[in-house]
């Protein structure tokens, strides 16, 4: 009896924490940090577990190896549950021996899931977990005709300036209207000529998993430098309050932060780590194989603005708190 009790006790403890480290295999810190965020995305895991891979899935199939890696990560006796996934990315031309951009690998992984998954219905559901729909509206100032182009984002890019800012201000700025004139003038199909116009974005729909990419890398004549600008972000947000009403058609949409992918170092020599809000309602800091429980105060230290080599938040993942299922395109 005693044995049975202790076994079930340790099993529960493992399940409750749900966070484990991943060894660094030839510069895999970027993929490791991303895998931690995927492991924390229970919505993604549920969809992957519903998928019955067919025999035609073949070798080096990204969705299949991701499904296997996420399952293997739950077994803490496995020292490196992510090796096959790393190898699989490598064979899909995401070379693991070079420095990656976490947002690029995030996009590449989700796009390869769309391409390589035998069940296209589940593949579409996975995509819809992340898709934010934004219309870019350009209004001709001559005839007032509005040209609308729908855009779908897996992660919302936020462009930073040198000055300290907030997530809300970054969002407000990226939705702001701007006048297009002179060489930037827009071709109006109605007037059949380039005319001055006003261009702005409108938020159309939000996903269950809302991902922001803080664009900290800036390319200046072939040389990439990193912006350590301070960008503060709250633990919970209401998207209806984050974007001016005239640029949004979403109602109350509350989200909670559950993963922060962190970049430290310079654009040339960097390292990725992750903060994860686990199912046991605690924050953890994961630096490859090293895992430590932390406070929200520690997560806030990744806002940036603390010197050249400080840890800075690079990707933020929020999940919906709304009871209503968000509308997907
Ligand atoms: Zn016009």
Overview of this protein structure:
It contains ten helices and 18 strands. By secondary structure, the protein is α+β, with helices and mostly antiparallel strands. 31% of the residues lie in helices and 31% in strands. The chain is globular, with a radius of gyration of 22 Å. The strands form five sheets. Strands 3, 9, 13, 14, 15, 16, 17 and 18 form an eight-stranded mixed beta sheet that branches. The N and C termini lie far apart (54 Å). The chain has a domain at 23-130. It binds zinc ion (ZN). It comes from Pangasianodon hypophthalmus (Striped catfish). GO terms for molecular function: cysteine-type deubiquitinase activity. Residues 20-321 form the USP domain. This is USP domain-containing protein. One of its GO terms (cellular component) is nucleus.
Architecture blueprint of SSEs:
Elements: H1 2-17, H2 29-40, H3 42-50, H4 62-73, H5 83-91, H6 102-116, H7 120-130, E1 132-140, E2 146-153, E3 156-159, E4 165-166, H8 167-175, E5 178-180, E6 186-188, E7 193-195, E8 197-205, E9 209-215, E10 217-220, E11 223-226, E12 231-232, E13 236-238, H9 239-242, E14 254-265, E15 270-277, E16 283-287, E17 290-294, H10 296-300, E18 311-320
Parallel strand pairs: 3-9, 4-12
Antiparallel strand pairs: 1-2, 1-8, 5-8, 6-7, 9-18, 10-11, 13-14, 14-15, 14-18, 15-16, 16-17
Bound molecules: zinc ion (ZN).
């Amino acid at each position: 009896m005693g044995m049975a009790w202790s076994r079930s006790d340790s099993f529960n403890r493992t399940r409750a924490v749900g966070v484990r480290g991943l060894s660094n295999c030839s510069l895999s810190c970027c993929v490791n940090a991303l895998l931690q965020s995927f492991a924390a995305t229970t919505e993604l895991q549920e969809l992957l577990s519903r998928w019955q891979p067919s025999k035609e899935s073949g070798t080096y199939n990204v969705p299949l190896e991701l499904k296997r890696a996420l399952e293997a990560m739950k077994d803490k006796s496995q020292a490196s549950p992510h090796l096959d996934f790393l190898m699989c990315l490598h064979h899909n031309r995401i070379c693991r021996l070079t420095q990656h951009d976490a947002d690029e690998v995030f996009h590449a992984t989700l796009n390869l899931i769309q391409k390589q998954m035998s069940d296209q219905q589940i593949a579409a559901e996975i995509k819809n977990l992340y898709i934010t729909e934004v219309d870019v509206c350009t209004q001709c100032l001559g005839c007032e005709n509005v040209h609308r182009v729908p855009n779908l984002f897996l992660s919302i890019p936020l462009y930073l300036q040198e000055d300290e800012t907030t997530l809300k201000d970054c969002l407000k700025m990226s939705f702001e209207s701007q006048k297009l004139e002179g060489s930037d003038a827009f071709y109006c199909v109605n007037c059949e000529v380039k005319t001055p116009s006003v261009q702005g974005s409108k938020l159309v729909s939000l996903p269950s998993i809302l991902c922001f990419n803080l664009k900290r890398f800036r390319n200046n004549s072939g040389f990439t430098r990193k912006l350590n600008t301070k960008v503060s972000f709250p633990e919970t947000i209401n998207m209806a309050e984050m974007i001016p009403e005239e640029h949004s058609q979403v109602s109350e949409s509350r989200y909670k932060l559950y993963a922060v992918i962190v970049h430290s170092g310079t654009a040339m020599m960097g390292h990725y780590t992750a903060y994860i809000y686990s199912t046991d309602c605690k924050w953890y800091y994961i630096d490859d194989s090293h895992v430590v429980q932390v406070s929200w105060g520690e997560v806030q230290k990744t806002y940036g603005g603390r010197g050249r080599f400080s840890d800075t938040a690079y990707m933020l993942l929020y999940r919906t708190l709304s009871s209503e299922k968000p509308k997907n395109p």
